[in-house]
Amino acid sequence: MRREEAVVRLDSVSKVYGDVTALDDVSLEIRRGEAVAVMGPSGSGKSTLLNMVAGLDRPTSGSVVVNGEDLTGLGEAGLARFRRRQIGMVFQFFNLLDDLPALENVALAGRLVGVPARKARARAGELLDELGLSHRGDAYPAVLSGGERQRVGVARALMNRPALLLADEPTGAVDSKTGDQVISLLLDLNRMGQTLLLVTHDERLAAQCATRLVSVTDGRIVRTADLERGESWSAR
C-alpha cells in the first residue's frame, strides 16, 4: 500500500467525562509508515487520544477509523478482536506476565488470535532473536533488565504484525542508556515501514523517532510539525 494512505483517521472526535472535556473536536490523520509523536502536559488529553485509537475508549462524538475499520461501529467483542489483530501496544511499565518466561509472554499474543502454539512460539523466537534476546527466551520478567523487558514488550506488540504500533511513554520507566536503546529500536522499526503513534513527555524521543510532532493542550491539537517536510517545531 502507498505511504499516503491513512492508517488512522480521527474526525471531529470529542470525549467528555462528566464535566471534563478530555478531547475537544480533534481531527487527525496518520499516514502509513509515519511515526507521529503526541506531546503535551499531564491532563492535556494525549492519553485519551491514544485510548481512542486503540479502541480502549469510545468517543462521545466523532468517528475513529483505523486501518479501514470504523471503531465506533464495533461492539466490545469486535473491539477486542481489532486490538489483538491490528494494534501492537508498548507500555511504560512493560505489562509482562510475571509467571511466564519471555518467549511465552511474546507467544501469548499470537495464541490469543488463534495461532497454533508451535507456530506462535516459532514466531516469538524469531522476534526475540531479531531484538537481540534469543538467549533470554526462558528468562522470567523478574530477572530481566528494564531494557530487556521493554524489548520483550516490543516483541509481543509485533507478534501479530500490527498495522499500527502504539507506544505509551516507552522511555518513561527506564534509565537514559536504556532509553537510547528504545529510541534506536523504534527508529529501526519505523525505517522498516512500521507505522508508529507515540505518546511521550520525552522531547528527545519525539525529536529522534518522529516524522511528525503533534502538541495537545486542553484536549485540542494546538500545534503540529511535519519534520520530513522540514517544518520547524520551534516555529509558531
Structure, explained:
It contains 7 helices and 10 strands. The chain is α/β, with parallel strands linked by helices. The protein has a domain at 6-97 and 162-229: Rossmann fold, CATH 3.40.50. The strands form 2 sheets. Strands 6-7-8-3-9-10 form a 6-stranded mixed sheet, with helices on both faces. It has a 4-stranded antiparallel sheet with strand order 2-1-4-5, covered by helices on one side. The longest helix is centred in the last third of the chain and has 16 residues, at 176-191. The chain is globular. The protein starts with 5 loop residues before the first strand and ends in a 10-residue tail after the last strand.
Summary tags:
Rossmann fold; alpha/beta; four-stranded antiparallel beta sheet; globular; 236 residues; six-stranded mixed beta sheet; 10 strands; 7 helices; 27% strand
CATH class term of the domain at 6-97 and 162-229: Alpha Beta
Q: Please indicate the percent range of residues in DSSP E strands (runs of 2 or more).
A: 25-35%
Q: What is the fold-level CATH name, i.e. the topology of the domain at 6-97 and 162-229?
A: Rossmann fold
Helix content: 25-40%
Helical stretch tally: 7
The whole-angstrom Rg is 18 Å
Order of helices and strands: EEEHEEHEHHHEHEHEE
Average pLDDT works out at: 89
Largest sheet: 6 strands, mixed
Query: What structural class do you assign from the helix and strand content?
Result: alpha/beta
Major sheet: arrangement of strands = 6-7-8-3-9-10
CATH architecture of the domain at 6-97 and 162-229: 3-Layer(aba) Sandwich
CATH superfamily of the domain at 6-97 and 162-229: P-loop containing nucleotide triphosphate hydrolases
What is the chains' assembly state? single chain
What are the low-pLDDT stretches, counting only 5+ consecutive residues below 50?
A: none
Shape: globular
- The tally of strands reads 10
Amino-to-carboxy terminus distance: 33 Å
